[in-house]
Amino acid sequence: MAAVSVSAPGKVILHGEHSVVYGRRAVALSLDLRTTLTLTPGGARLVLDLPEVDIQQAWPMGEVEALWERLGQPGEACAAPLTEAQVGQVRDFLGLPEDPPGGPRGLALLSFFQLYLAILPRPVPATLRVTSQLPTGAGLGSSAAYAVCLSAALLRLAGRGAAADSTPSTEVSGGLSLQEVSGWAFRSEQIVHGTPSGIDNSICTYGGAVSFKAGCCSPLGAPPLQVLLVNTRVPRSTKALVAAVAARRRRLPEVVEPVLDALDALAERALQTLADLSSADSPQQQDEAYAALHELVDINHALLASLSVSHASLERLVGVAASYGLHAKLTGAGGGGLGVVVLGRDTAPEAVDKCRSELEAQGYQVWQTILGAPGLTFH
Ligand code: MEV
Question: Fewer C-beta within 10 Å: the chain N or C terminus?
Answer without folding.
Answer: C
